[in-house]
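explain this:
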Amino acid sequence: MEGIQINFVAILIVVVANFVLGFLWYTPLFGKIWGREMGYDMNEKPKSSEMIKGMVFMIIGNVLFAWVLAHNMAAWTFVPGSEDIPPFQNAMMASIFTWMGFYFPVDLGSVVWERKSWKLFFINTGYHLASLMVAALILSYMM
């Protein structure tokens, strides 16, 4: 059995793509609704130090996200017959099953236990699914 091969250029591309997707998702697409649902004062601008800290943590999180997803997807390549699965199908299976098993239950729990709104649930869980799909597509075609 050979070792798992990870394409670090693909990981870097995923990090950048997720950063852009997050900006688009939580700014022009759903930013106002998300902010309102989170209870933020939409007239108050965050301090630049808070923004920088948030971006640094987001980048670190995106690196870990891409690296772990890449390892998970690469591990499945050792399953007999997996080489016959087209990259698009591989990406969709990896993203949807990861979302259903790890993100969706946590996002659902935020509605039940943290009393978050359903609007917030759909914004956040939609982002998680979209983020996984983008990442898995990049990784599938670059593995």
Summary: The radius of gyration is 17 Å.
